[in-house]
Amino acid sequence: MSKRGKRPAAPGVPEDKDIESMIRVDHAGEYGAVRIYQGQLAVFNAMNCRSNGTEAICKMADQEQKHLKTFDRLVNERRVRPTAL
């Protein structure tokens, strides 16, 4: 029996802990993006401002919400600890 430890991953092949870290960081980023768009839309709504810019922000907010939903699923499927923030 060999006394060597676990063989390292090949270059360019992430290990499980690396993948978990990537999912955690991406999940946090998507959460932050969703909150930023919510804040921008709240300001526009408070000002009764409807413009092409507002429409674009609505579309981007919808996209970010879909991204967040995907990362929510990955966090749960892979049992990744979400960010403490």
Helix percentage range: 55-70%
Helices and strands, in order, run as: HH
Mean pLDDT over the full residue set: 88
Largest sheet geometry: none
The end-to-end distance, rounded to whole angstroms, is 44 Å
CA gyration radius, whole angstroms: 19 Å
Q: What's the overall geometry?
A: elongated
Number of discrete helical segments: 2
Class computed from helices, strands and strand pairing: mainly alpha
Beta-strand percentage?
Answer: under 5%
Total number of beta strands? 0
Low-confidence stretches: none
Task: State the gist of this model.
The protein is mainly alpha-helical and 85 residues long. It has helices at residues 16-46, 52-77.
Description of the structure:
This protein has helices at 16-46, 52-77. The relative contact order is 0.17. α1 packs antiparallel against α2. The protein contains 2 helices and no strands. With 85 residues, it is an all-alpha fold. The model has no long low-confidence stretch (mean pLDDT 88).
